[in-house]
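Protein modeling request. Please complete all fields; requests missing the sequence field cannot be processed.
Requester role: graduate student
Desired output: 3D structure, token encoding
Chains: 1
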Amino acid sequence: MAEAESVIGTPDSAGAEDSAVPEERAEERPRGRRRIVALFVVAVLAYLIDLGSKIVVVEKLEGREPIKVIGDLLRFEAIRNPGAAFGMGEAFTIVFTCIAAAVIVVIIRLARKLYSLPWAIALGLLLGGALGNLTDRLFRSPGAFEGAVVDFIAPAHFAVFNLADSAIVCGGILIVILSFRGLDPDGTIHKD
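Delivered output (192 residues):
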């Protein structure tokens, strides 16, 4: 028995490398699963917060005077936006719907190779925000794939936006920071 243990334990033995690889992969899988769980938890939270805020805005604010939050610097004002950021591209609502759907598919596919918690958070924010605005485009008037997004955060001298937009922007900024720091979604760090 001791002889068998010493043969298995030596690095030169034929089976040692093969048996070490599955152990390393077994250790990586739970870490990877935890990162995927983190991605989806962040996405669900971002989505639910956005959805809840839009429900409240539609019920309490739509068709009413804007609410001043910080004097003239910030107000809440319900606006339906069929276009993209800053109200651009109102005639291309269906295109924005397809782009949001494509982003969601790409993030879900990328999640399989995800081993970095910061990337999981960033992608979760992007996914939750994309789902929030996609939900509006699919289910709000004037109809499926042409729905207008509910925007309500109106800073002075800036575009009106919503919490899904905020999640997308924060996720995008985090991805830029992670990229500049050389951290890849798979957890590896590279220096260029």
